[in-house]
Write a structure and sequence with these properties.
- This protein is globular.
- With 304 residues, the protein is an alpha+beta fold.
- It is 42% helix and 17% strand.
Length: 304
């Protein structure tokens, strides 16, 4: 891809993006430059520079997962609608056609190099306020993805039922199909599913709006605030979000200080935390293989 011109983009995509840019900001604007950037392991990604100097973030894929960019845009819109956390502005979504690949056009977020303790505390406070946003069910009114795996969000009244069927159960089915559940692991997981009620008190859990994939790579610090990216949104127990943040290295302590200022965690969280980390561990087992098997097994041995 040429860093100084839009010629590196597929021509149909270049034309579609030019039309969208001109719809948004006027007929005199054009794409002046394209620079490839890291976009994860699913899509191509680029920084677009417009003729007026502004920059945009582009994801595109000629063979995308069904509705991948649409549901990402909807998730960002849900998070933005809470008026609690910052997310990138969505400027355009295009499904794959004969003329161009599927694409998602977003605000460019320029990361800060500093990690101010107060910015991290405020990030925690804002996430706690976001978690206060609720719904009448667990799940969502549409399915989406976590990474490249489908994430089933069938609206459910009971959190224990939702977590059993649509989180752990769904990943167990996938692991069985992929040959990643040896007999002992499968037996322990089935036993754990039967006794989730012993660990989770359904009566005290409330649906919270969750980012859904909140690890250290899915937030940026920019302009003195945290920005959430790449969501896998649904309504669930807020503890699963906090448990996820602690899984792969954890977030800075100031983040948790800020969160607990606004909404302290309930007693017993430390006992439930490994159970809630089991879902992302199973996701990683299914995505990346047996390297995550021992971590799954340690969680299962703790409860079964």
């Amino acid at each position: 891809m040429n860093a100084g011109t839009s010629a590196g983009l597929p021509r149909g995509l270049q034309n579609a993006l030019s039309r969208r840019v001109q719809e948004l900001w006027g007929p005199d604007l054009s794409i002046a430059g394209v620079r490839p950037v890291s976009g994860g392991d699913i899509n191509e990604a680029a920084c677009l520079t417009l003729s007026d100097g502004r920059r945009l973030f582009l994801k595109y894929n000629p063979n995308p997962l069904p509705r991948l960019f649409e549901v990402e845009a909807r998730g960002l819109s849900l998070l933005k609608g809470t008026q609690t956390v910052r997310v990138p502005e969505v400027y355009g979504v295009g499904e794959a056609t004969e003329e161009h690949p599927a694409f998602l056009l977003l605000e460019w977020i320029e990361p800060d190099s500093s990690r101010s303790p107060e910015v991290l505390r405020e990030f925690g406070r804002r996430l706690a306020r976001m978690h206060r946003c609720s719904w009448g069910f667990y799940g969502l009114d549409h399915d989406n993805y976590i990474g490249s795996l489908p994430q089933r969000n069938t609206p459910t009244r009971s959190w224990v039922e939702f977590y059993r069927e649509h989180r752990l159960g769904a990943q167990m089915e996938r692991a069985l199909q992929g040959g990643r559940l040896p007999a002992k692991r499968r037996e322990r997981l089935e036993r754990l599913l039967e006794r989730l009620d012993d660990v989770i008190d359904d009566a005290i859990v409330k649906p919270s709006l969750l980012h859904g994939d909140l690890w250290g790579g899915n937030f940026l610090l920019s302009g003195g605030e945290a920005v959430l990216i790449d969501p896998a949104v649904y309504y669930g127990d807020r503890e699963i979000e906090l448990a996820f943040t602690e899984l792969f290295g954890g977030f800075p302590p100031e983040f948790y200080e800020g969160y607990n200022e606004v909404w302290p965690l309930d007693p017993g969280y430390e006992e439930r935390k490994p159970l809630y980390q089991l879902y992302p561990l199973l996701v990683h087992l299914n995505l990346f293989g047996e390297g995550y098997g021992p971590s799954v097994d340690r969680v299962l041995q703790r409860y079964v």
